[in-house]
């Protein structure tokens, strides 16, 4: 059997329904490719003079959400839009769309790596 790389590539979009305070919000999202997730992580990290790292989770989340959300009732997902949101059920629902910054998230761990 020949190796099928397409099984491992991300593509396409899917419709997600966010349930917020009894309201259903339909959005169209796309997956974040592995290398782009790594770029978002690198862009969101900084180091001080002592070599200590700092992770800007807000920046990481915003970069991911701006990429992930293809179509939404509020229009384009921009920094201005994201900054305008409060800490509430809506922003919690949005944060569930963001891939975990570190680790495999919900994905299954490989059975064997050689």
Identify the notable features of this structure and list them briefly.
alpha+beta; 3-stranded antiparallel beta sheet; two-stranded antiparallel ribbon; 5 strands; flat
How would the blueprint of this fold be written?
Elements: E1 14-20, E2 23-29, H1 34-43, E3 45-47, E4 53-55, H2 57-68, E5 69-71, H3 79-83, H4 89-95
Antiparallel strand pairs: 1-2, 2-5, 3-4
Helix pairs in contact: 1-2
Q: Quick summary of this structure?
A:
This protein is α+β, with helices and mostly antiparallel strands and 114 residues long. The chain is built from 4 helices and 5 strands.
Main-sheet strand order equals: 1-2-5
End-to-end gap: 20 Å
| Low-confidence spans | 106-114
Query: What is the gyration radius calculated from CA atoms?
Result: 17 Å
Number of strands: 5
Multimeric status of the protein? single chain
What proportion of the residues form beta strands (DSSP E)? 15-25%
Largest sheet: 3 strands, antiparallel
Helix content: 25-40%
**Arithmetic mean pLDDT:** 88
Envelope shape: flat
Number of domains: 1
| Tally of DSSP helical segments | 4
Which class best fits the helix and strand makeup?
A: alpha+beta
Secondary-structure element order, as H and E?
Answer: EEHEEHEHH
């Amino acid at each position: 059997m020949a190796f099928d790389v397409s099984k491992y590539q991300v593509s396409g979009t899917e419709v997600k329904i966010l349930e917020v305070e009894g309201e259903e919000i339909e959005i169209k999202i796309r997956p974040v490719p592995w290398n782009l997730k790594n770029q978002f992580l690198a862009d969101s990290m900084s180091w001080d003079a002592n070599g200590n790292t700092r992770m800007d989770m807000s920046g990481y989340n915003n970069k991911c959400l701006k990429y992930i959300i293809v179509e939404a009732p509020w229009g384009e997902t921009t920094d201005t839009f994201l900054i305008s949101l409060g800490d509430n059920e809506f922003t919690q629902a949005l944060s569930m769309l963001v891939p975990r910054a570190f680790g495999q998230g919900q994905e299954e761990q490989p059975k064997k790596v050689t």
